[in-house]
Amino acid sequence: MPKAVVAAQSRRRREAGEGEDVRALAEEIGSSLVRAVREAAADDFGRARKGRGPALISWYAFSLEYLEARWVQVAAKTRSETNDALCSITEAMLRRTRGRPDDELLRRALRNWAFVVPRPDVRKAPTEVRFALDWVARASRPLDDLLDPAVMRGVLQALRLKRGGTVAAAETQRRKRMTFVNAVRYAIELGQLRADPLANISWRSTETVQQVDPRVVVNPQQARNLLCAVSYVGGYGRARGRRLVGLFAGMYYGGLRPAEAVAVTLPDCELPTEG
Fold first, then answer.
1. Which DSSP symbol is given to 202?
2. Predicted TM-score (pTM) above 0.85
3. CA 188, CA 199: separation in Å to the nearest integer?
4. According to the model, what pLDDT value does residue 139 have?
5. Rounded Cα–Cα distance for residues 275 and 182 (Å)
6. How far is CA 31 from CA 19, 26, 35, 45, in A?
7. Which is it for the CA torsion 66, 69, 73, 77, positive or negative?
């Protein structure tokens, strides 16, 4: 066979081999690109799903959702307590940004327009209320900020106080905290909080000292008139009036509770010989 023919055939085989190699390499690279694109898409989808809760939702937006879910399950009195608690928590979850409304307007907008179901049409609200709620929506911290112990402490402290800044009654504190606990559990169930922010926080309600207001305590003249008046209750034979005199006299002069005054017997008393 002539050398020219052999060389031509060899060249064609080499070019064919190189073409197959190039094709194989291109297919391999294409497959790698497809796998990379699919993995990237899966990662993005996973991050988006994780971010749907804490990364994208604010406390204010979440609290509106929670209230709608909770509203039909509770009685009217509990609804009012839930409204009050969510107002306090929301105020504690606001960032310090420019344009904050005054406290009275802020509380009125939240209590009367935001945290009620069915929610009124905000477009019909007064202008200052619309501005206040728009500011709250912008200034509200992300729900995930509850995992910051400093933020959590601020919220719990807000639950201890009344609107005037004084310490609320222990029962009021417990009711507000229970609303907060239920909201946190709801967020965890929905996957909007990745952990329980209350798990490592120690909290106890602050006991308040109940002081008697002197303005509501009867004076000696009023006490004598009261004892005289109750002595006329009922008929003389049944002695109901005389028993009431002993009851209220023991409470006033002896400082007894009603149950203690009822249980008093003659051997319990040290009566003077005169007077």
1. -
2. no
3. 12
4. 96
5. 61
6. 18, 9, 6, 21
7. positive
